[in-house]
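User: Hi! I'm working on a homework problem where we have to compare a predicted structure to a textbook description. Could you give me the structure for the chain below?
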Amino acid sequence: MRKKQAGSMDENTPNGPHARLRLALRGFAAVCFCLGLSSCGEKSQSKALPLDDADFLARASGFVSEPLPDADLTNRFCENEKAALFGRRLFGEMAFSGEGTRSCISCHDPSHGFADTRSLSHGEGDVNRHAPTLINVAYGQWFGWGGKADSLWSQALGPLEHPAEMGGDRLAIAHHLSNTPELAKTYGELFGTLPALNDAARFPAHGLPSGADPGGKRATASAAWEAMADGDRQTINRIFSNVGKALAAYETKLISGPSPFDRRVRALQRGDCEPVEGWDAAAARGFDLFTGHAMCVVCHSGPRFSDGEFHNTGAPPLHGGEPVDPGRYQGGPTLQASIFRAGGAFSDHTSGQRAERTKRLKTGSEQWGEFKTPSLRNLVERPPYMHQGQFEDLEQVVDFYDTRENSVGQSHHQEQILRPLSLTEEQRSDLLAFLRALQGGPVSAPWATPRPF
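Assistant: Happy to help. Predicted structure tokens:
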């Protein structure tokens, strides 16, 4: 997103970019109305939608939920049903963690929208970020709050080894697969028979690269990894990447059903003007605010209500003080150095769009403190909010963006478009009504509940 420079035209002036956007949208709505693109009811096919509905439809159609996400070509198993079932099992596999007491479920709670109930997640240690929802995660192009992964399968690998999350290591994970007949059998059917790992001199019980062990608390395991032959390390890396691909195949299934907003838009597209449960006048006014005066749409755009990019909103750290998390500034270079990036040796499509996007990625100090724009779908079931879970409920989120109270990070590059909105109580209520109308249907069975098969 292009940041507004000091001294540039105010977005709310008659000729500002926001005013032009609103005029363009309303102009398109008028064209729709005049041409009679839709009609209400089968008996009045020549009658156009009422002007208010035509205006809403013209502005809302670009936000309606998509069909299934496009296949990730870097993971040739992403649409494989058996791989998804295998990933469903691995999602709850506690033996992957260092202490054998945690799994992906520990922070991505299925009963809480596959997000963490806590502000800061806690695994083998304290994590300085909030574990976000995995619902609809497969629609993304960058993964993690700081964007340190460019595919869902590579994102899944990070927490497995992070010392404060699951604290496992790739050699121990490979051994567990090999030593568990049921897992070894399914792995073999998908990815090919696991190699023999019983030679401890070649394949120690534990091992991981030093770069995967921030803090250096597992020096023995790192040394064991470095002592391995390069070919043996690549064998383990291949097994590890396949674990990520199975997990990603499962997470790709975590798709929510249509929301009241989607149902309203689709009904109008059919020419049906009848009321839709969960959608009312307050939600409609909230949508007007969202795309108009509040300008939430600048970052929360498209079917996921997210541009999928990174911004510094000035949200205060959970425990006060100035921000210390570099966000995208660190995430971008971490991604480009990863052997599991889309253009790396373990990708199934090394020259596609994902790989090129990462290759062209520019990083710089202006990205310090930027975090990925979260989706606004299915918000109701998964508080708290923001990258540290700073806000306990949606009311606090709206209050922050309305007042900009306690905004921080003025010493770093910050989104200049953000300024107090001075909303009335009714406007706040309407905006909240719209956000709640983005609550989609539940994830379908059997994917809603990770279980060993």
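For your comparison, note the following. The mean pLDDT is 89. The longest helix spans residues 230-251. Good luck with the assignment!
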